[in-house]
Every structure is written in structure tokens, then in C-alpha cells.
Fold:
Amino acid sequence: MSITGSIKKREYKRDGKVIRTRYRARYLDPAKPGANAKIEQTFRREADAKEWLVHQAATIQEGTHIDPREATTPLRKVVEDWRGTWDRRPLAAKTQAGSPASSRNTSCPGGAMCRWEP
Structure:
């Protein structure tokens, strides 16, 4: 199976000036052949869009592809899994003090601060 993907440059303008450029990478959904369904992701850099498409193509070829729209993992699960490794390799006190689990604050998408509660 091969992947057919594309990258489209999208420019957002205000008063005739380009204020933001984004790159939309798309490929056909391998789970829905013949349906013309697409999976897409938007990036700030064209190089990141190309890298993402190459990675998606590789996972399709390997048979390990997971639809990125269904691959989200809650922060709570990530932190719990990470904390589960502490007993195998103890972290320095400063590292533990700065962890989301102890400070209860962490950065969220977009640079905002979020409160993490167990």
C-alpha cells in the first residue's frame, strides 16, 4: 500500500499583507479506501509537514498506522505512566519538585497554564 499525500501552503492576509503562513498536510485515510476520506494536520513549517507525511507513510507501510485523530492520550495518563517509572530510576529531588504531579500546574497547548488534578 502506498500513501498519496500533499502539502498546501495557506496564507492568511490582513489589509493585503500576509500575517500568517501555515502548511496543511493531507493524505488519504487508509482505513476508508475508496471513500476519498482524508486525514490532515496543519503546521507552521513546511519541513514539519513533510516530516509528518513521511512518518505517516512509514506507519502505513509497517502496518502500525493509528489515525492521529484517535491517538490522543490525556495528560493524567501520561503523568501516571511517567510516575510509575520513578521507583526503577529515582529522580532527583529538584526534578520531582518540578513535575506536574507535584506542582499541579503544567503548560497546555497554546502556551497556557493548566491545573492538573489527580
In short: The longest strand covers residues 17-28. Residues 75-115 form one domain.
